[in-house]
Specification:
The protein is of the alpha/beta class and about 425 residues long. The protein has two domains: about 10-140, N-utilizing Substance Protein B Homolog, Chain A (Orthogonal Bundle), CATH 1.10.940; about 225-430, 3-Layer(aba) Sandwich (Rossmann fold), CATH 3.40.50. It has helices spanning about 10-25, 40-55, 55-65, 80-90, 100-110, 120-130, 135, 145-155, 160-170, 185-190, 230, 250-260, 270-285, 325, 330-350, 370-380; strands spanning about 175-180, 195, 200, 220, 240-245, 260-265, 290, 305-310, 350-360, 385, 405-410, 425-430. Strands 5, 6, 7, 8, 9, 10, 11 and 12 form an eight-stranded mixed beta sheet that branches. A four-stranded antiparallel beta sheet has the order 2-3-1-4, sandwiched between helices.
């Protein structure tokens, strides 16, 4: 007897469940690739399910609590991941249809030895969710952010900004590129709009990044508009020696090379440096690449300028990585604060007298940004602030703070354009002796 064919859509549901389960377990989210699901439409569908489940995580938590009075079953394999994907479809992706959500959820559990005994529970829970989907779809958007995060960010940015954060979380991030050369024809071919300086934005695309015009020729690189700001603010003469600390995957390295500096790119992760090397080769740049610990590295000759994009909580990237909202806690942030101080201290030690230092983090946490700038001025006696002026941020003057730092967040957009930007903090210093 011939084997019964696999139900349509089951393989992508299984792949999505495995990826979501890994993220729920603490892994960083990475979209499914061609090696996971070959068909482009299926891959897009699976990624849409996963990202919706992650973006709506807080709301789905409340739904699950109502549907499962005894909580999630223990040691139940993929049950939670399949349930979250199915609830995301039933409540927040009604265009995908309700029947497939129920049917594929049950079929997916049948493939899991640790969860197949829960098919009856899954079916009952999802039918109840289907009956209440209209009510669930009107849930308070304040549930999108964990309570502790909302409280922290409300204090830092205000309620109006938090509303914009919630909207940005649901919408996700557009694709921003930094151009190697100013080229109107390329911008038109990409279907992009100009943001500021050499940053452009694609609000939507119908193909992988590698298939976009100009990729193979190295005419641009992917870089969020906020991430492109720090390197532009470096004060150094063309030809100056510049150290890019914690450089991988290389967006700022490319900017520094483009600006005509003699660039050294340092990172402790050899695999990430290999990716940087490949990126630089595609773009036609040849920085010195150094594999070393950024907290202890000592150069034979101090650098004229240094850019330190320090490891951080990365909460400013939640539009692309919504899981960060639920994975980070106070202890994580405190640990990164300690590391950032070690890196700042060592960056200072490698900086020539009169040299410029840029410190930046893709974090929305004041402890990793504003507070670190204050700490550096107190702890490093011959380091002084070099305030950033509004004239240096022509289309984003509102990002310049009273102390001359730059603070971006998803509620801001260059020139008022749609799409927001990552949360970033940038401070500039100079060594006086």
């Amino acid at each position: 007897m011939a084997n019964k064919p696999e139900p349509a859509g089951l393989s992508l549901r299984l792949a999505a469940a495995q990826r979501l389960r890994a993220v729920l377990g603490g892994e960083h989210f990475a979209p499914l690739s061609t090696s996971d699901i070959a068909d482009g439409r299926d891959r897009a569908m699976a990624n849409r399910l996963i990202t919706t489940a992650l973006r709506r995580h807080g709301q789905i938590d409340v739904i699950i609590a109502e549907l499962l009075e005894k909580g999630l079953p223990a040691r139940s394999g993929t049950f939670e991941a399949v349930l979250r994907l199915s609830l995301a479809q039933l409540v927040f992706l009604p265009d995908l249809g309700a029947h497939s959500a129920l049917f594929l959820a049950v079929e997916a559990l049948k493939k899991d030895n640790k969860a197949r005994h829960l098919t009856g529970l899954m079916n009952a829970v999802l039918r109840k969710a289907q009956a209440n989907s209209a009510r669930y779809g009107l849930m308070d958007e304040r549930l999108l952010l964990p309570e502790a995060v909302r409280s922290r960010w409300t204090s830092a940015y205000g309620e109006t900004a938090l509303d914009a954060f919630a909207e940005a979380l649901i919408e996700g991030a557009p694709l921003d590129l930094t151009l190697r050369d100013d080229d109107d024809e390329l911008v038109e071919a990409l279907g992009a709009e100009r943001l500021m300086a050499d940053s452009v934005r694609l609000a939507s695309r119908d193909r992988p990044v590698e298939a976009l015009p100009g990729y193979d020729a190295g005419r641009w690189w992917v870089q969020d508009a906020a991430s492109a700001i720090p390197a532009r603010l470096l004060r150094a003469s063309p030809g100056a020696s510049v150290l890019d600390l914690c450089a991988a995957p290389g967006g700022k390295t490319a900017q520094l090379a483009k600006a005509g500096f003699e660039v050294s790119a340092l990172d402790s992760d050899s695999a990430r440096l290999e990716r940087l090397s490949v990126n630089m080769s595609r773009l036609g740049y040849a920085p010195e690449i150094i594999t070393a610990d950024a907290s202890s590295y000592r150069a034979e000759t101090p650098f004229d300028a240094i850019v330190l994009d320090a490891p951080c909580s990365a909460t400013g990237t939640f539009r692309r990585h919504p899981e960060i909202l639920w994975h980070r806690n106070a202890a994580d942030i405190a640990g990164r604060v300690r590391l950032q101080r070690a890196l700042l201290t060592n960056a200072f030690a490698n900086l020539a007298v009169g040299g410029s230092l840029i410190y930046c983090v893709c974090s929305l946490e004041p402890e990793e940004g504003e507070a670190q700038a204050d700490w550096a001025l107190d702890a490093l006696s011959s380091l002084e602030a070099d305030p950033i002026g509004t004239d240096e941020m022509a289309v984003l003057t509102e990002a310049v703070t009273d102390k001359g730092h730059v603070r971006t967040h998803p509620g801001l957009a260059p020139g008022g354009r749609n799409g927001g930007m990552d949360g970033f903090f940038v401070a500039r210093f100079r060594r006086t002796r």
